Amino acid sequence: MNPQSARTLVISPNWIGDAVMAQPLLQLLKAAHPERPIDVLAPPAVSPVWRQMPEVAEVLETPFRHGSLQLKERWRYARLLRQRGYADAYILPNTIKYALIPWLAGIPRRVGYKGESRYGLINVMHHDDAPPRPMVPFYAALADAPGGPLRGSLPKPRMAAGAAQIAAACAKTGIDPARPLVVFAPGAEFGGAKRWPPAHFGQLAQRILERDPQAQVALLGSPKDGPACEEVIAAAGAPPGLASLAGKTTLSDAVALIARSAAVVSNDSGLLHVASALNRPVIAIYGPTDPDHAPPFSDMAASISLRLDCSPCRQRECPLGHQNCMHGIGAGQVWQTLEPMLNR
Fold first, then answer.
1. Most CB within 10 Å of its CB: which of 84, 132, 272, 329?
2. Is the pTM of this model over 0.85?
3. Of which family is this protein a member (predicted)?
4. Full set of structural domains in the chain with CATH
5. H helices of the chain, where?
6. Quick count: other Cβ atoms within 10 Å of Cβ 323?
7. Helices 270-277, 251-260: crossing angle, 10 deg rounding
């Protein structure tokens, strides 16, 4: 292999937030080999966030079905990858099926965590000896030799959206680019326990629009978040300026609107980490998950958690049936943190 034409392959995690938190790894790899293009192999649902990262040369979308081994399909795809001349691969998912791809492609250096006992498939194997480690250093450690000391400081996740992308998203969704915009992300893929109550989001929207009637509050999410977003609107009294865009935007559109926003209020979700990587003012609301495990990294960011004795339980639904860790965070508490961000 000609070292001058060698490339690096990064195999993406399956979750948006994890992909964003893996981005500092790419910054470290690019600093070590600035001449080497970095390609990312990612699921279609995650690939838009990689396209917003300056270190990525090309995004390759996985053709595989979720949860299926599809050995023949992986072999065929590996043959295509073999032709691209990869010197190394960084396998971020911890499963055997993703480690198979660079091994079948004959990529000589294959870096990753032990995961599902992936001996042989991974030949530069890391071990996570101090779980649960925050996600950014967890991925970033793959840039260094296994077993070495952790870096004292790490770059922050970073993404960027261009002016044309932002203008197109505003035109598509009816967002007025001349008026202030606050984004809410009321959804969470992990489960209902991670969702701040829609009524609380609604009360917070009322505070924002009472303070500035010219403001716009956009509710972002997937089609599955549509009912929760409608509950937010109902709780707020359906005021002008509050709109649900759940299921009406692509992930690329959502990135652009977040980049345009004055602030973002979000559950612990993928869009929270997108907002953080875009360096927007962020309020992150945590209940059953640990705010220290995946915090926002914006220059202006606040993590709100009651840190009850029963949390973080890391359960999809509240095992005690009360969800006090989220219900107990009032809209007034969040407003006290948000209002200074809007006044800056």
1. 272
2. yes
3. Belongs to the glycosyltransferase 9 family.
4. 3-143 (3.40.50.2000), 163-342 (3.40.50.2000)
5. 16-21, 23-32, 47-50, 71-82, 96-104, 135-140, 163-173, 198-211, 226-236, 251-260, 270-277, 324-327, 331-342
6. 18
7. 50
